[in-house]
Design the sequence.
């Protein structure tokens, strides 16, 4: 019943992708800049070691 319904936004995006097929490749390249990054285990260990312990109650004055 509702399986053929597409919102205006979905229709717009599908049409945009059909007219500009290079957008998918650009999206993957831009994603790689921020999300698909290889983390350095040594740096991660340093970040963890540098964390300060949290106070049991943050709003209590020292």
Sequence:
């Amino acid at each position: 019943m509702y399986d053929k319904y597409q919102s205006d936004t979905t229709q717009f995006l599908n049409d945009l992708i059909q007219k500009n097929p290079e957008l998918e490749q650009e999206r993957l390249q831009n994603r790689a800049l921020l999300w698909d990054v290889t983390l350095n285990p040594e740096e991660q260990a340093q970040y963890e070691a540098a964390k300060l312990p949290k106070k049991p109650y943050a709003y209590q004055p020292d």
In short: The chain has three helices and no strands.
